[in-house]
Amino acid sequence: MTTADPAAQHIPEDAMRRLAEMRPGQKTSLFTSDLSVNEFLLVREAGFRPLGLVLGSSIYHVGFQMGRWSKNQEMDRLSQAMYHARELAMSRMEAEADVLGADGIVAVRLEIEFKEFGSDLAEFIAVGTAVKADEPGEWRNNTGKPFTSDLSGQDFWTLVQAGYAPLGMVMGTCVYHIAHQRFRQMMGNIGQNVEIPQYTEALYDARELAMSRMQAEAEQLEAEGIVGVQLLSLPHRWGGHTTEFFAIGTAVKPLRDDHHIAKPQLVLPLTD
Question: How many whole angstroms separate alpha carbon 178 and alpha carbon 107?
Answer without folding.
Answer: 33
